């Protein structure tokens, strides 16, 4: 008698080693545009969106004719011939908060600005103030330091007398073109001598204008050009750059353009960086 090696019931699964194991569904994020098939209905479509409806998450599929149908998120779908369980797409996380300020200091998040100190930092003009704010603004607010416009170094002696510096009321001054033998250096020395000892510190950079403290490559130059005597410096620079230079509005627009290239302290010359840091230390000591 020939033995029935297949058994009496070829459809019965018990003990049989010939049946393939069931294929398990792998998780698949339902990203927009993913083409899937819903196995129960045979609906094939691209994921339009995932939303919450009636207390459950659903996926909306759009077929090639533009028709849409909604299905519960989860198992019961095929992608590229493989069973999948659709999951909500991974949302992009918020960008990490910076760990450093533009000046390179450690960033302190969610801290309230300190009440303004009695001490001040003075700069010669609006462009100087805007550059200091761009790079050191976070630090200054945390320290409670106010930056004020001096409107030209010629006004320094009168401004110091009016401010009346003293203990807890210091003044740090940033001056353009502060080089030995210059008019600016003489005015600064006289102003410091007239004030109480240790209450006024005047520092400066060697540049004709604070524009030059921005690294020239930020505006496409190898070096800031030399402007001949008798030519207003900013207008001469604009002509060298090929930028409009007809009036003060052109100067203002050019400065905004230059300032916009400054991202952090790395875009400034070291001769300015050190002076500003020293002034901040002086008025917060």
Quick take:
With 285 residues, the chain is of the alpha/beta class. It has six helices and eleven strands.
How are the secondary structure elements laid out?
Blueprint: E1 26-29, E2 35-38, E3 44-53, E4 56-62, E5 68-72, E6 77-79, E7 82-87, E8 120-123, H1 126-143, E9 146-149, H2 156-163, E10 171-175, H3 183-194, E11 200-204, H4 233-241, H5 248-259, H6 270-284
Parallel strand pairs: 1-7, 8-9, 8-10, 10-11
Antiparallel strand pairs: 2-3, 2-6, 3-4, 4-5, 6-7
Helix pairs in contact: 2-3
Report what the structure shows.
By secondary structure, the chain is an alpha/beta fold. The chain is 26% helix and 20% strand. The chain is built from 6 helices and 11 strands. The strands form 2 sheets. Strands 1-7-6-2-3-4-5 form a 7-stranded mixed beta sheet, with no helix packed on it. Strand 8, helix 1 and strand 9 form a beta-alpha-beta unit. Helix 2 runs parallel beside helix 3. It is elongated. It starts with 25 loop residues before the first strand and ends with a helix. The N terminus is likely disordered.
């Amino acid at each position: 008698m020939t033995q029935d090696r297949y058994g009496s019931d070829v459809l019965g699964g018990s003990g049989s080693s010939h049946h393939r194991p069931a294929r398990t569904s792998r998780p698949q994020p339902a990203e927009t545009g993913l083409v899937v098939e819903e196995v129960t209905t045979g609906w094939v479509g691209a994921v339009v969106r995932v939303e919450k409806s009636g207390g459950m998450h659903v996926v909306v599929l759009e077929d090639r004719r533009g028709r849409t149908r909604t299905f519960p998120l989860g198992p019961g779908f095929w992608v590229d011939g493989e069973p999948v369980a659709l999951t909500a797409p991974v949302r992009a996380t918020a960008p990490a908060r910076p760990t450093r300020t533009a000046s390179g200091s450690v960033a302190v998040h969610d801290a309230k600005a300190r009440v303004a100190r009695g001490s001040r930092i003075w700069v010669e003009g609006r462009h100087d103030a805007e550059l200091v704010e761009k790079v050191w603004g976070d630090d200054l607010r945390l320290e409670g330091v106010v930056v004020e416009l001096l409107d030209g170094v010629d006004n320094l002696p009168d401004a110091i007398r009016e401010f009346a510096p003293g203990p807890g009321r210091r003044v740090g001054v940033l001056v353009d073109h502060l080089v030995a033998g210059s008019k600016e250096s003489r005015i600064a020395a006289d102003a410091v001598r007239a004030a109480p000892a240790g209450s006024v510190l005047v520092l400066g950079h060697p540049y004709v204008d604070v524009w030059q403290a921005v690294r020239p490559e930020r505006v496409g130059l190898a070096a800031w050009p030399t402007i001949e005597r008798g030519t207003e410096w900013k207008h001469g620079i604009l002509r060298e750059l090929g930028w409009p230079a007809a009036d003060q509005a052109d100067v203002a627009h050019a400065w905004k353009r230059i300032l916009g290239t400054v991202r952090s302290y790395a875009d400034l010359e070291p001769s300015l960086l050190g002076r500003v840091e020293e002034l901040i230390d002086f008025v917060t000591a």
